[in-house]
Write a structure and sequence with these properties.
Layout (H helix, E strand, L loop, with lengths): L5 H23 L3 H7 L4 H18 L3 H8 L1 H20 L4 H29 L5 H29 L4 H4 L1 H15 L13 H20 L3 H4 L2 H21 L15 H31 L4 H28 L6 H15 L8 H28 L6 H35 L6 H27 L5 H9 L1
Helix pairs in contact: 1-6, 1-7, 1-9, 2-3, 3-6, 3-10, 4-5, 4-17, 5-6, 5-9, 6-17, 7-14, 7-16, 10-12, 10-17, 13-14, 13-16, 13-17, 13-18, 14-16, 15-16, 15-18, 17-18
Length: 470
């Protein structure tokens, strides 16, 4: 490893930590029904295992810009990784559902500190014209972990007790901690920087309320529950209030001026659409494989492995194209490929072979790799260097909300629409489920298609050079 250039050791270091955070979250998804049996609880209580992670992560992210400037990005990342290891250790020794939920809250706080800072550390180590490839390699954590997590979680639970799902994180986390301590570069600090407490309380309340409402609103009844509506409306009001408040501050918690940069704003739109596309597949494909075609969890897990590999490979290829040619040569083609493959999933029939579904999902992964991280990199490249940590935090927050919104939409659509279709006496439940999933994939494809024209607005380092020369 010592033969690698130092800047690539930075990528490897943060890759270990962030991969572990995301992998742990996706590993627990297929295990929730088992927790209902283990703790003799219900789906609502067990659902907190996922909801609390999402909420605490979203509420912590706005702090990363301030912490990074005040104490240094390396220190913040290391503290976040230590907190994650503490949460994993608590999860391993948990004996009650309450302790598991508490450990997940701690892990979420750690993820909120680590994810935005990881991107900022990479940007700090690479010049603009090399960041595409660097972020593409790092993006393996963000894109591949959600795809392989359910497979690993399902495999582990077959052979070991559930606490080992938390222990699985510890070796990777410790490795990331050792590498990060040794190879991450210290960044400048500003001891005089003021903490915007009022701004934090407003935005934490807004994000926490919205994410909590989306986390519990997986059915039509719970989504339109008076409490849920109050949380969403109150959260949105708080976010709007935060925007007005921050624009009046000399030293804001989050500098919202980055949204005046067209490339950054468009990159948020593109990555949000891609996230909805990604998580729609993660939610819908297991239902398709198990409820329509009657295959088991192993076949479901295998469906995601080639897609994860394709996503990882083409994320690096897309990053290299971004560095050499610019975003217009990689992001629009990536979104188009992903949209077409998703569209193909909307035409499935009961006679469709498994290998064709696997192929379409692999092509989706290919398109995701080319479209998502290059869009993020071009957006982050377009903002001032001193705002990278804050820009990364806002990117992660909006992606978290859009992913949650996508899962809620497709969950409710699946339940409501399947009930409507199956009410027809001429259609059995299997055919009704297939029709519903076909329609859901069509909606996902439309979201991606809508994002394609926006992706042509993205500008890269090459465009900046041409403008300067002109």
């Amino acid at each position: 490893m010592s033969k690698l250039p130092h800047k690539w050791l930075v990528v490897v270091s943060v890759l270990f930590g962030t991969f572990t955070v995301i992998l742990n979250n996706s590993m627990l998804n297929p295990i929730l029904p088992r927790f209902i049996e283990i703790f003799e609880s219900d789906a609502v209580a067990v659902g907190w295992i996922l909801t609390i992670f999402m909420v605490s992560m979203g509420m912590t992210m706005p702090l990363t810009g301030y912490f990074g400037d005040r104490f240094g990005k390396k220190k913040v990342y290391l503290v976040g990784l230590c907190i994650f290891l503490a949460g994993s250790t608590l999860g391993f020794f948990s004996s009650t559902l309450g302790m598991v939920i508490l450990s997940r809250a701690i892990q979420g706080m750690a993820g909120g500190l680590m994810m935005p800072i990881a991107m900022a550390l990479i940007f700090n180590s690479f010049p603009r014209y090399e960041r595409g490839l660097a972020v593409g390699v790092y993006g393996v954590a963000a894109m591949v972990a959600p795809a392989i997590g359910p497979t690993i979680g399902g495999f582990l639970i077959q052979y070991v007790d559930w606490p080992w799902l938390f222990a699985f994180n510890i070796p990777f986390g410790l490795t990331g901690l050792i590498l990060s301590s040794k190879f991450l570069e210290r960044t400048e600090t500003d001891p005089t920087k003021r903490f915007d407490l009022v701004g934090f309380l407003i935005i934490a309340t807004g994000i926490g309320s919205v994410l909590f409402a989306l986390g519990r609103g997986r059915t039509l009844e719970t989504l339109f529950d008076p409490l849920n509506i109050a949380l969403i409306v109150g959260g949105l009001i708080a976010i709007v209030l935060f925007v007005f408040y921050e624009n009046r501050q000399e030293d804001p918690l989050l500098n919202l001026s980055v949204f005046k940069v067209p490339t950054y704003s468009v990159s948020i739109v593109v990555t949000s659409a891609a996230s909805i596309g990604l998580f729609s597949g993660i939610f819908l494909l297991p239902l398709l494989i198990q409820n329509v075609y009657g295959l088991n969890e192993v076949m479901t897990g295998l469906l995601f492995l080639p897609a994860a590999a394709a996503s990882g490979v083409f994320m690096s290829i897309g990053g290299r194209i971004l560095d050499k040619k610019g975003p217009k040569y990689v992001v629009p083609p990536g979104l188009t490929i992903m949209a077409l493959a998703t569209l193909g999933l909307s035409f499935l029939q009961l006679s469709t072979p498994y290998w064709l579904i696997l192929l379409l999902n692999t092509v989706r992964g290919l398109g995701m790799g080319m479209g998502n991280m290059p869009a993020t990199t071009s957006g982050m490249n377009s903002i001032p260097e001193h705002l990278v940590a804050q820009g990364s935090a806002m990117n992660n927050i909006i992606r978290q909300i859009s992913s949650s919104l996508g899962i809620v939409f497709f969950s409710i659509y699946y339940e409501v629409r399947r009930a409507q279709v199956s009410a027809n006496p001429d259609i059995d439940m299997q055919a009704a489920t297939l029709q519903t999933l076909n329609e859901a994939f069509l909606v996902s494809a439309i979201v991606l298609i809508i994002a394609i024209p926006f992706s042509f607005i993205l500008k890269g380092v090459q465009d900046d050079k041409e403008e300067q020369e002109a």
